[in-house]
TrEMBL record:
InterPro entries: LACTB2_WH, Metallo-B-lactamas, RibonucZ/Hydroxyglut_hydro, Sec-metab_biosynth-thioest, WH-like_DNA-bd_sf
SMART domains the UniProt entry points to: Lactamase_B
Source domain of life: Bacteria
Native source species: Limimaricola cinnabarinus
An annotated Gene Ontology molecular function: hydrolase activity
Keywords: Hydrolase
Protein name: MBL fold metallo-hydrolase
Alphabetized Pfam families for the sequence: Lactamase_B, WHD_BLACT
PANTHER family in the cross-refs: ENDORIBONUCLEASE LACTB2 (PTHR23131:SF0)
Listed CDD domains: metallo-hydrolase-like_MBL-fold (cd16278)
Span of domain Metallo-beta-lactamase: 28-206
Length: 293
C-alpha cells in the first residue's frame, strides 16, 4: 500500500488525503469516499477549494447519499457545507461542536477553561446521529458509534467489519485530548469499547490504516497510564502547574508543540482531580499548581 493522496484501500473505499500536513495532522486529513454507484463521503476535510475539486473529481456524476463527519474540528468538518451545496447531500454528525459534553466538561467550560484548538464553532449538521444509528449506502451499512474522548461528540463508523476511527485512534500519533472538548475518562472508555468491537482494520482520520487495532488500542491506553504515572511521580516532589509539568515531561518535544502537550497534561490533571487523587491550589485550574491529595 502506497501513501499516495488518492488511493483505493479496498473495493468500494477510496481515500483522498487533504493537502493540510502539519505536526497536528500528520500527512493530512483523510477524506473517505465509500460506495460504488451511490456514495457516502466521510470527513470532507478542511475548507480548501483544491480539496473540494479533488473530491468532486472522485465523485464524478455519482449521487452522494450523505456526508458523514466524525467530529467538528476544522480539519475534518469545515468543507462539509461547500460539499453539501455541490452534491445536495445532507451533512450527518453527532451534533454541533459542543454537543455531548459531560457535566464535568460543561462546568469547566462555564468556568472559562477553553480548549478550542481548531474547533468548528459554527458547525451545524443537517441530521444528528445517535449511537447505533445506521445508514444504508450501497454495498454495506455504516453504523454510527458515539465514542467521545478526543471530542465529546466524536463518532466512529463501523463498516464491513472495519471501523472509521476518526481521531480517537490513529496509527501515526497518540490522540490530543484538550478539555473541555476532550475528556480523558471518556477517551479510555471509548478505546475499551472500540476494542470489544474487534475491528479487522481501522481507517483513521490521519495516517495509514491500522492493521492491528487491538495492539494499537492497548498501546494508547498503556501510553496514557504511563503518562499518569509520570505526572503523579513528578508531583511527589511538590506542587506543579501544567506548564511546569509539561516542561519536565516533554523535555524532548519541540517548544512549538508544548501548548498542545500542556492541554494533554491538563486533561490528566482534571481526570486525577475527579478521582480525588490531586487537588488544585485554586479554582483557576490552567494556572493552578496541583498537589497529590
Amino acid at each position: 500500500m502506497t501513501d499516495a493522496p488518492l488511493e483505493e484501500l479496498e473495493p468500494g473505499l477510496m481515500r483522498l488525503r487533504a493537502p493540510n500536513p502539519s505536526p497536528m495532522t500528520g500527512p493530512g486529513t483523510n477524506s473517505y469516499v465509500v460506495g460504488y454507484d451511490r456514495l457516502v463521503v466521510l470527513d470532507p476535510g478542511p475548507d480548501d477549494p483544491a480539496h473540494l475539486q479533488a473530491l468532486l473529481s472522485v465523485i464524478g456524476a455519482r449521487p452522494v447519499e450523505a456526508i458523514l463527519v466524525t467530529h467538528a474540528h476544522l480539519d475534518h468538518s469545515a468543507l462539509a457545507p461547500a460539499l453539501a451545496r455541490a452534491t445536495g447531500a445532507a451533512v450527518c454528525a453527532y451534533g454541533p461542536a459542543t454537543a455531548g459534553r459531560s457535566a464535568v466538561m460543561r462546568r469547566l467550560a462555564d468556568a472559562g477553561i477553553g480548549g478550542g484548538e481548531g474547533l468548528d464553532e459554527g458547525f451545524a449538521p443537517d441530521r444528528c446521529l445517535a449511537d447505533g444509528a445506521e445508514l444504508a449506502p450501497e454495498g454495506a451499512p455504516l453504523t454510527a458509534l458515539h465514542m467521545p474522548g478526543h471530542m465529546a461528540g466524536h463518532l466512529c463508523f463501523a463498516w464491513r467489519g472495519a471501523v472509521f476511527s476518526g481521531d480517537l485512534v490513529m496509527g501515526w500519533s497518540s490522540t490530543l485530548i484538550s478539555p473541555p472538548d476532550g475528556d480523558l475518562a471518556a477517551f479510555r472508555r471509548s478505546c475499551e469499547r472500540l476494542r470489544t468491537h474487534a475491528p479487522r482494520r481501522l481507517y483513521p482520520g490521519h495516517g495509514a490504516p491500522v492493521d492491528s487495532p487491538a495492539e494499537r488500542i492497548d498501546w494508547l491506553l498503556a501510553h496514557r497510564a504511563a503518562r499518569e504515572a509520570q505526572i503523579r511521580a513528578a508531583l511527589e516532589d511538590g506542587p506543579l502547574d501544567p506548564a511546569a509539568l509539561t516542561e519536565r515531561l516533554y523535555a524532548d518535544l519541540p517548544i512549538a508543540l508544548h501548548p498542545a502537550a500542556r492541554r494533554n497534561v491538563l486533561a490528566h490533571l482534571i481526570d486525577l482531580m475527579e478521582r480525588n487523587l490531586v487537588t488544585p491550589s485554586d479554582g483557576g485550574l490552567v494556572g493552578a499548581r496541583f498537589f497529590l491529595t
